[in-house]
TrEMBL record:
<protein>
    <submittedName>
        <fullName>ABC transporter ATP-binding protein</fullName>
    </submittedName>
</protein>
<dbReference type="Pfam" id="PF00005">
    <property type="entry name" value="ABC_tran"/>
</dbReference>
<feature type="domain" description="ABC transporter">
    <location>
        <begin position="18"/>
        <end position="258"/>
    </location>
</feature>
<comment type="similarity">
    <text>Belongs to the ABC transporter superfamily.</text>
</comment>
<dbReference type="InterPro" id="IPR013563">
    <property type="entry name" value="Oligopep_ABC_C"/>
</dbReference>
<keyword id="KW-0813">Transport</keyword>
<dbReference type="GO" id="GO:0005524">
    <property type="term" value="F:ATP binding"/>
</dbReference>
<keyword id="KW-0067">ATP-binding</keyword>
<dbReference type="InterPro" id="IPR027417">
    <property type="entry name" value="P-loop_NTPase"/>
</dbReference>
<dbReference type="InterPro" id="IPR017871">
    <property type="entry name" value="ABC_transporter-like_CS"/>
</dbReference>
<keyword id="KW-0547">Nucleotide-binding</keyword>
<dbReference type="InterPro" id="IPR050319">
    <property type="entry name" value="ABC_transp_ATP-bind"/>
</dbReference>
<dbReference type="InterPro" id="IPR003439">
    <property type="entry name" value="ABC_transporter-like_ATP-bd"/>
</dbReference>
<dbReference type="Pfam" id="PF08352">
    <property type="entry name" value="oligo_HPY"/>
</dbReference>
<dbReference type="InterPro" id="IPR003593">
    <property type="entry name" value="AAA+_ATPase"/>
</dbReference>
């Protein structure tokens, strides 16, 4: 069976100068690649985490999937349809099966609308009037663990955790097949974070939806995702089953990110891997391996030749000339 979402070699570009300015300045290429050659797939009922520092391209992938940013190259198939070949009307019909959970649910909600209006707004936006909106609001609020009378409140009357639940209810209003969750726990206390992640996990199991989580919080990734992809300068440097990557990262950038993440079990804490230098500009990508300017394991080859993707038996891929070695069995 084909996956719900299948992305191959996706490239997304941003224009850095207007048409006139690029002619005046004689710029050959007034674009930068925010996302390069990214491939992944997501099955129904599965969760994939996109991880990386700010500016790594993870939010651009989400915007491109949702039709908010043009895709320059590659193919994106969703539920058997090639999104790039659809006209606007057909895309809008497919788009109803994709929902976005914004990072700041209160800030992204109109302060003048009641919670009932907000959770049922997708019905109005997508032309699905004719439903009993009181009933729908009560159903959605109950689904996310809020009492139906929350429908009469306004966003400023909600706690951070309640606002997230409203964001989840709104995202699920149209029974989507895919939810894109942008930093689903940002700004929440740790105990509330766990509640929101458990809610998402439970709903996913119950409803069979696929979730694409965008985050820099590795604890979120560990808690909720089946697979994860690590991004650097718009590329995937490593991708695979979440547990396998936490157990044994193969790319030095992943190793550094994981080593900076507080371990719940202090006995399992790893030595911190410090990265030198700054993240290079997308306008001036390093030659060879683009991570070589910061990599503690870089060698001469890395400075001139770009590494290719290696795949191991566990559908775990990494892009490195000298990947970190998996633990060797101890000699008897
Ligand atoms: Fe580091 Fe070289 Fe691997 Fe790049 S290819 S991540 S520089 S070891």
């Amino acid at each position: 069976m084909s996956p719900l979402l299948d992305v191959s070699n996706m490239r997304v570009r941003y224009r850095t100068a207007g048409r006139l300015a690029s002619v005046v300045k004689r710029m050959d290429d007034p674009f930068i690649d925010a996302v390069c050659d990214v491939s992944f797939s997501l099955e129904a009922g599965q969760t994939l985490g996109l991880v990386g520092e700010s500016g790594s391209g993870k939010s651009t992938i989400a915007r491109a999937l949702l039709g908010l940013k043009d895709i320059a190259e590659g193919s994106v198939r969703f539920d058997g349809r090639d999104l790039r070949s659809l006209d606007a009307r057909s895309f809008n019909a497919v788009r109803r099966d994709m929902a976005m959970m914004w990072q700041d649910p209160v800030g992204s909600l109109s302060p003048r609308l009641t919670i009932k209006s907000l959770v049922t707004e997708p019905f109005r936006i997508h032309g699905r009037e004719g439903r009993d909106l009181d009933e729908e609001a009560a159903r959605l609020l109950t689904m996310v663990g809020l009492a139906p009378d929350f429908g009469a409140r306004y966003p400023h009357q909600l706690s951070g955790g309640q606002a997230r639940r409203v964001g989840v209810a709104r995202a699920l209003a149209l029974d989507p097949k895919l939810v894109v969750a942008d930093e689903p726990t940002a700004g929440l206390d740790v105990s509330v974070q766990a509640e929101v992640l458990n809610l998402l996990s439970d709903l996913q199991k119950r409803l069979g939806i696929a979730i694409l989580v965008i985050t820099h919080n590795l604890n979120v990734v560990r808690h909720i995702t089946d697979r994860m992809a690590i991004m650097y300068l718009g590329r995937f440097v490593e991708q695979g089953p979440t547990q396998a990557i936490f157990d044994q990262p193969r790319h030095p950038y992943t190793e550094a990110l994981l080593s900076a993440n507080p371990e719940p079990d202090p006995d399992a804490a790893k030595a911190r891997v410090e990265l030198s230098g700054e993240v290079p500009s997308l306008r001036d990508r390093p030659r060879g391996c683009e991570f070589h300017t910061r990599c503690p394991h870089a060698r001469d080859l890395c400075r001139t030749v770009a590494p290719t993707v290696t795949k191991d038996a566990a559908a775990h891929t990494f892009t490195c000339h000298f990947p970190l070695l998996p633990p060797q069995p101890s000699p008897r």
